[in-house]
Design goal:
0% strand, 79% helix, mainly alpha
Length: 136
């Protein structure tokens, strides 16, 4: 299930970036309309993740309740690792707001923080499931 969030996160982020780049059409990114594309990418990412997770659970006959200690350790470590990136994104947005930067940059600092955090969490989960949880 870790792969689902990772793949959906990467795809939605790349598609969002392509849409914004196309909307900028070689001009400044700040002038590109982004709000609807950002909201759509977030919404579609959530819906696709939920739907694909449900379909995979049905096809593999997993009810989602069969977690063990290892699953909880992996989830905790992945969330802990990803949280740092999320905090950095939030601090970047805070600094941009204090500097009275354009709303575009503030929104994207938050968006990139959430996006990078989700992707890092997925990468961490996949790596820990493949390599094992270190015991430090």
């Amino acid at each position: 299930m870790a792969w689902i969030g990772l793949v959906v996160g990467i795809v939605t982020g790349v598609v969002y970036g392509a849409v914004i780049a196309a909307r900028a059409a070689g001009g400044p990114l700040v002038d590109a309309p982004y709000v609807d594309a950002m909201l759509w990418s977030i919404g579609i990412g959530i819906v696709v993740t939920v739907v694909v997770t449900i379909v995979v659970a049905i096809l593999t006959r997993r009810d989602g309740y069969g977690t063990d200690v290892r699953d909880r350790q992996i989830s905790a470590r992945a969330e802990h690792t990803a949280r740092a990136v999320l905090v950095i994104g939030a601090l970047a947005a805070l600094v941009l707001a204090m500097l009275e930067a354009d709303h575009f940059w503030i929104a994207h600092a938050l968006f990139v923080g959430f996006y990078a955090s989700a992707v890092l969490e997925g990468i961490t989960k996949v790596a820990l499931y493949r390599g094992g949880v270190p015991s430090w």
